Amino acid sequence: MSETKEFIPGVSEDINVTEKAVKEIKRLMEENKVPAEFMLRVGVKGGGCSGFTYTLGFDPEERPGDNIYEMDGVKIVVDMKSSIYLSGTELDYTDGLMGKGFVFNNPNAVKTCGCGSSFGV
Question: For 4-120, which CATH superfamily applies?
Protein backbone atom coordinates (compact mmCIF):
# COMPACT_ATOMS: atom_id res chain seq x y z
CA MET A 1 0.00 0.00 0.00
CA SER A 2 1.39 3.40 -0.98
CA GLU A 3 1.84 6.19 1.51
CA THR A 4 -0.18 9.36 0.93
CA LYS A 5 2.17 12.32 0.64
CA GLU A 6 1.32 15.85 1.64
CA PHE A 7 0.70 17.76 -1.57
CA ILE A 8 2.77 20.91 -1.64
CA PRO A 9 2.33 22.90 -4.89
CA GLY A 10 5.66 23.31 -6.67
CA VAL A 11 7.30 20.59 -4.58
CA SER A 12 5.68 17.27 -5.54
CA GLU A 13 7.85 15.01 -7.61
CA ASP A 14 5.18 14.15 -10.18
CA ILE A 15 2.41 16.59 -10.87
CA ASN A 16 1.27 19.90 -9.44
CA VAL A 17 -2.44 20.65 -9.46
CA THR A 18 -3.64 24.24 -9.36
CA GLU A 19 -6.32 25.40 -6.95
CA LYS A 20 -8.63 26.03 -9.91
CA ALA A 21 -8.18 22.41 -11.06
CA VAL A 22 -8.83 21.08 -7.54
CA LYS A 23 -12.02 23.12 -7.37
CA GLU A 24 -13.18 21.63 -10.70
CA ILE A 25 -12.28 18.09 -9.60
CA LYS A 26 -14.40 18.55 -6.47
CA ARG A 27 -17.26 19.95 -8.56
CA LEU A 28 -17.12 16.97 -10.93
CA MET A 29 -17.03 14.50 -8.05
CA GLU A 30 -20.08 16.10 -6.46
CA GLU A 31 -22.00 16.47 -9.72
CA ASN A 32 -21.35 12.83 -10.71
CA LYS A 33 -21.81 11.48 -7.17
CA VAL A 34 -18.27 10.06 -7.10
CA PRO A 35 -17.59 8.64 -3.61
CA ALA A 36 -15.19 10.75 -1.52
CA GLU A 37 -12.74 7.84 -1.16
CA PHE A 38 -12.08 7.78 -4.94
CA MET A 39 -8.85 9.32 -6.24
CA LEU A 40 -8.16 11.21 -9.44
CA ARG A 41 -5.81 9.01 -11.44
CA VAL A 42 -3.61 11.07 -13.74
CA GLY A 43 -1.58 9.19 -16.30
CA VAL A 44 -0.03 8.84 -19.72
CA LYS A 45 -0.64 6.22 -22.39
CA GLY A 46 0.68 5.65 -25.88
CA GLY A 47 -1.35 7.17 -28.70
CA GLY A 48 -2.44 10.46 -30.15
CA CYS A 49 -0.83 12.28 -33.03
CA SER A 50 2.30 13.18 -31.04
CA GLY A 51 3.00 9.82 -29.37
CA PHE A 52 1.40 10.00 -25.92
CA THR A 53 -1.94 11.11 -24.51
CA TYR A 54 -2.91 12.21 -21.03
CA THR A 55 -5.47 10.26 -19.05
CA LEU A 56 -7.73 11.40 -16.21
CA GLY A 57 -10.25 9.33 -14.35
CA PHE A 58 -11.62 8.54 -10.93
CA ASP A 59 -10.27 5.34 -9.38
CA PRO A 60 -11.41 3.61 -6.18
CA GLU A 61 -8.15 1.82 -5.48
CA GLU A 62 -4.43 2.31 -5.53
CA ARG A 63 -1.99 -0.01 -7.29
CA PRO A 64 1.55 -1.09 -6.43
CA GLY A 65 4.01 1.69 -7.25
CA ASP A 66 1.42 4.49 -7.18
CA ASN A 67 2.39 7.90 -5.83
CA ILE A 68 -0.53 9.46 -3.99
CA TYR A 69 -0.79 13.15 -3.14
CA GLU A 70 -3.53 14.99 -1.32
CA MET A 71 -4.50 18.59 -1.88
CA ASP A 72 -7.41 20.22 -0.13
CA GLY A 73 -9.16 16.87 0.42
CA VAL A 74 -8.61 15.58 -3.13
CA LYS A 75 -6.34 12.58 -3.62
CA ILE A 76 -4.28 12.60 -6.82
CA VAL A 77 -2.64 9.32 -7.86
CA VAL A 78 0.06 8.83 -10.51
CA ASP A 79 1.40 5.41 -11.50
CA MET A 80 5.13 4.77 -11.61
CA LYS A 81 5.39 4.66 -15.43
CA SER A 82 3.45 7.90 -15.91
CA SER A 83 5.58 9.63 -13.26
CA ILE A 84 8.51 9.60 -15.68
CA TYR A 85 6.58 11.60 -18.29
CA LEU A 86 4.66 13.82 -15.87
CA SER A 87 7.52 14.94 -13.64
CA GLY A 88 7.08 18.69 -13.04
CA THR A 89 3.78 18.89 -14.95
CA GLU A 90 1.11 21.33 -13.84
CA LEU A 91 -2.54 20.30 -14.18
CA ASP A 92 -4.71 23.39 -14.52
CA TYR A 93 -8.32 24.05 -15.45
CA THR A 94 -9.40 26.72 -17.88
CA ASP A 95 -12.87 28.07 -18.52
CA GLY A 96 -11.96 30.83 -20.95
CA LEU A 97 -13.33 31.89 -24.32
CA MET A 98 -11.35 29.17 -26.13
CA GLY A 99 -13.19 26.46 -24.20
CA LYS A 100 -13.36 24.68 -20.89
CA GLY A 101 -11.18 21.81 -19.74
CA PHE A 102 -8.14 20.53 -17.96
CA VAL A 103 -4.80 21.70 -19.32
CA PHE A 104 -1.47 19.91 -18.88
CA ASN A 105 1.56 22.20 -18.78
CA ASN A 106 4.28 19.60 -19.22
CA PRO A 107 7.92 20.78 -19.26
CA ASN A 108 8.98 17.35 -20.63
CA ALA A 109 6.94 17.65 -23.83
CA VAL A 110 9.13 18.56 -26.79
CA LYS A 111 6.17 18.57 -29.17
CA THR A 112 2.40 18.76 -28.80
CA CYS A 113 -0.49 18.43 -31.19
CA GLY A 114 -2.81 21.28 -32.08
CA CYS A 115 -5.59 20.07 -29.77
CA GLY A 116 -3.20 19.87 -26.78
CA SER A 117 -4.24 16.36 -25.77
CA SER A 118 -1.14 14.53 -27.00
CA PHE A 119 2.57 15.13 -26.68
CA GLY A 120 5.99 13.72 -27.52
CA VAL A 121 9.17 13.54 -25.49
Answer: HesB-like domain (2.60.300.12)
Pairing mode, if any, of strands 74-78 and 99-105? unpaired
Return the CA Rg of the chain.
14
How do residues 53-94 score in pLDDT, each as one tens digit? 889 999 999 999 899 988 888 999 999 999 888 999 999 999
Task: Give the H/E segment covering residue 121.
Answer: none
Domain borders along the chain are 4-120
The number of residues making up the chain comes to: 121
Torsions phi, psi for 76 (to 5 deg): -115, 130
The model's pTM: 0.77
- Look at the alpha carbons of 106, 67, 73, 52 in this order and tell me if their dihedral is positive or negative: positive
